## 1
Amino acid sequence: MSSYLIFWLVGFATLWTGLRLFDDEVLLIAALIVGSGLVFIGLLSAPTGLQIAIEVALVASLFHLCMECIKRGDRA
């Protein structure tokens, strides 16, 4: 198993666990920061083709979200 998949698995598991289990804000913020960091490290260690595909998907989804805001007239 590739190292980036392990980072993603642990990172997303940490994010999910933090959102499901912790009611205390400090623990929740700590779990979200650690999980986001692990997901980011997994993205950095992923192959270049996969990085580009993920970036294109994120830009396309953000573009779609911006177009929805423009249609509604909410430009803020």
## 2
Amino acid sequence: MSDNDDTRLDLLLFSVGGAHFGVDAGQVTGIAVYEGEQADDLFWFHTEMGYEDNSVTYNSPTIVTIRTGKGSPYRMIIDSMEDIAEFNLNDIRIFPAILEPFVIRKGLWGILSRNGIMVLLVDFQLMLKQKRIKNK
């Protein structure tokens, strides 16, 4: 990161099903190629987002391990990891209040325009927290 860390954010950028996403790289503790394994702590990104359509295809599935701070890891299968890049926090827009209840349940917290493409910012730790609340 730059000298002014409080205004910059490193994002891991990826896409799934033609939509573009970014996650704070500080939440990520590991990245590995998905080789078909199945495990209780391994989740498909599109399913976690509530998109149950089986037509979503992954061209280059990658496992991202998320920092949880306790218990078993939270591992997400994403597709097409594109970049890890630094962004200015001033370039990020939060969702309008009317959308907030929906987007927070999905772990989404902001939008970033990058090269004319809308990137949805997701908080995997918030996503896990919401998943645990839902499963109680």
## 3
Amino acid sequence: MLYLRMVGSDPEKLCAIEDPLYVLRQRNGVIVRHPYGKRVQGVLSPDGNEIWQFSDRESLGESYAVVEKITMAEYDLWYALQNQPEEPDPEDTDPVIPEDTEPETVMTRAQLTEKVGELDEALNLLLSGVTE
């Protein structure tokens, strides 16, 4: 799964692509599909009608939308915020602490989301060292 944020879009647009098809521009200028590697410069949109270039790679040209890779936690948080109910959940600010539980071990939803994001970033950092 590949999670992307459209750079410069307003409102913010994020996308999750289950089986991404990567592309790169060959020396003769032709853009071709390519298996994932350090040389890929972009990805096809989910519908296959557009080419999106990665913000941290060599440009494919000015006519392509720019995307940046994000973590699954960032995508999930964005998705949750987009589908948030109108009324705030009291558990967000004042969670119910079950009996036999130390109050210090209970987190609000915001604290839990932040902690999951930190752990996801640490995991991605560790995995990037393994895959490169």
## 4
Amino acid sequence: MYLWINIFTNLMKQILIFLVVIFFSSCKPSEKNTLNQKPNDIETEIVISDNQIHFQVKNISNDTIVLYNPQRLNIQRFVNNNWEKVRILNCPCGAPCAKPDEKLYLFKGQSHSISWDKQESWCGNKNENGIPKTIKSLSLSGNYRIIIIYQLNQADKQTFYKEFEL
């Protein structure tokens, strides 16, 4: 009887080790982060004027690139040694806006541009009609970065950060 318990215990250990190895070997990261490194697939340009910032992403690869959430500005500000998301609405509070595209395909040599008016925006208290007020505030001076998420050839999503200063 002792022999059977010992064999069963060893078998269970081997099965557990096998499952753990399979689990960890099948896990892979879904995104790669590129912190202030120049990616080989895209080229970014930031033009800052008095009342707006113009961002441009160009596909410099030989293949099609997928940009994720191309109409949503994903900007962060560096505050107290941390990056904090800047509140930017795509649509005025309470307005029936269409949902922006989640993906944009950039073919070789194509560019995508988007501008920001340097204002933070968020929804405030509701008025007498039940519609929240859109509140805007000029962004403070400091270090900022735009986050660009893209994918090349069905590979993992890449996250690229491009810093700028106001």
